[in-house]
Amino acid sequence: MPSAPEPSGLRRLTQAAGMAALALLALATPASAGIVARVDQSAQRMRVYVDGALAYDWPVSTARAGYVTPNGRFRVGRMEPFWRSRKYNGAPMPHALFFRGGYAIHGTGDIGRLGRRASHGCVRLSPSHARALFGLTARHGGAQVSIVP
């Protein structure tokens, strides 16, 4: 007659079954997208999705030669309505959404260069677009940032 699993073995089986069920549920249920800002560095564009639907398509400026805008997926960490760069002579960074250390999405007064690489690594937007994205992010309790080469 087979013996019953030991309590620790039963606990591991229960945990494994629970994790498998959660994984299947996550695959079957669409995630709540909230706000997603997708930056395409080759096109110098940002597409903003609200709950999975395209809401905005804006020109941006990412890192110019000699500088880097990091690629990857990030979450907005800190939000500052008005910030000044500590690294670049107090340069204004209105409506800054920090996503990786000192890297942020923020407004710029240099709107004539939007659509071309011009920054030290941040993602620059027109002031009105930065204000709109800042407001959306605040209302939705955060945002995901996705940056591709």
Give the gist of this structure.
By secondary structure, this protein is α+β, with helices and mostly antiparallel strands.
Task: Give the strand content.
Answer: 25-35%
What is the mean pLDDT? 86
* Termini separation: 61 Å
How many DSSP E strands? 9
3D structure, described in words:
There is one protein chain. The chain has helices at residues 7-28, 127-140; strands at residues 35-40, 45-50, 53-59, 72-75, 79-84, 92-100, 103-107, 123-125, 144-148. The strands form 2 sheets. It has a 5-stranded mixed sheet with strand order 3-2-1-9-4, with helices on one face. Strands 5-6-7-8 form a 4-stranded mixed sheet, with helices on one face. It is built from 2 helices and 9 strands; from the N terminus they run αββββββββαβ. It has 149 residues and is α+β, with helices and mostly antiparallel strands. The protein is globular and about 35 Å long. The termini are far apart. The model is unreliable at 17-32 (pLDDT under 50).
